[in-house]
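Minutes, structural biology subgroup

Action item carried over from last meeting: produce the structure token record for RHOMBOID-like protein (Musa balbisiana). EB confirmed the sequence was re-checked against the source entry. Recorded below for completeness.
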Amino acid sequence: MSTADVERGAAAASGKTRGAVANGYRIPGNYQSQFYYDPGASAEREWTSWIVPLVVVANVAMFVATMYINNCPGHRNIYGSCVAGFLHRFSFQPLRENPLFGPSSSTLQKLGALEWDKVVHQHQGWRLVTCMWLHAGLIHLLANMLSLVFIGIRLEQQFGFVRIGIIYLLSGLGGSILSSLFIRNSISVGASGALFGLLGAMLSELITNWTIYTNKAAAMLTLLVIIVINLAVGILPHVDNYAHIGGFLTGFLLGFVLLLQPRLGWLERRNLPPADQVKSKYMAYQYILGVIALVLLVAGFIVGLVMLFRGVNGNDHCHWCHYLSCVPTSRWNCGN
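Output recorded by EB:
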């Protein structure tokens, strides 16, 4: 997404050592437009989108519940007064603690934020999933949900709720696993891993269904620019780019498996003479890419989970990987 989507984190300006991380800025445009897609290539039904709106409602409801539990006025705060006090117990933490207009880090921890120590040493693996449904603040929530609507509804209309739901959830899980392997001193919340998974799936869908697209170069260039810009935002401090990358890779592989489109001529075969009819629904390369992607996906999840629950620190095996999530400059450092 290119309009604000601050992710994976609460209290970025909190001054605490165990703060939270934030996770990007992204609103890709309306990919899959008829400008790129050959309308004669497929006459399959268009699904009614309901899983994406349901996810949006669930995230909003979870944020409201989070703020109710947070109850800023009910606790003394060294950072100052609660923001928007007229909201009473729904008011936000002081901006010095959480600049995203949201709850405290302790509230997010209580409700299931991703935290390496709790996942590995306290066997709370469920946090790999629950962190996807928490948001660090109102700005964070609005940016993510707008991004989900822009990306998800069009994909769901084309491919259905089952496939898009699977991609969303597994991409969020993949992002959480990679994040936990590299980040140990911060909590992490947000849906950016899942959202980047949808972006990755859009890219692999374009590749595997290459023959049914017109203006292929324009479609590829547009999508790659969107992806590069959004990943580049992840090098800012307090942004969990590991979650972005893990989600993107998971969605990219799942796209080859779940988002196949029939080859040109398949849907019109009944109107053609037998000699001109297409024999196979998909092309050989689509099957090959799907099998390779499935093998890599399963292997990646198995290796990642084994490394995580054995307490392996990814930074010990990749000494330069920390630059993927934060690049220090004269204006900021990446130590916290």
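Discussion: Residues 1-22, 24-43 have pLDDT under 50 and may be disordered.
Next step: EB to file the record with the rest of the batch.
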